[in-house]
């Protein structure tokens, strides 16, 4: 995970703002979601997580969506997003949300290609600048 944050100019902080990766079982799997690694040979080249954030309204949240820069623009991000949306549908979710920063323009392109649209702030993430949602009812 550290290389993914460093490649974007961030400091990896597993004790602070990135502490969720220390509790993947509890925060992702136990809420009805999951956490996936995209690997090429023995190296992790991407990640994506899904956690349930509102069981009553069947809303999930996409987290830690990332593909290393040298593997971007090759369809990996769209493939991961397509698979997580299908997983969410199978899990009974009807909406997906996410937050991101304006500088994540490549990720924004992927989100928009799937139909995510901007919504008002829905969480307490002080770093996020853009909040998005997608209805996945079939």
Automatic annotation (TrEMBL):
Locate the coiled-coil region(s) and give their ranges: none
Matching PROSITE patterns, A to Z?
A: GNAT
What GO MF terms are annotated?
acyltransferase activity, transferring groups other than amino-acyl groups
Q: Where is the N-acetyltransferase domain?
A: 1-137
Family annotation (Pfam families): Acetyltransf_1 (PF00583)
Q: Which CDD domains match?
A: NAT_SF
InterPro entries this protein is in?
Acetyltransferase_Enz, Acyl_CoA_acyltransferase, GNAT_dom
What is the name attached to this protein's record?
A: GNAT family N-acetyltransferase
The species this protein belongs to is Paenibacillus aurantius
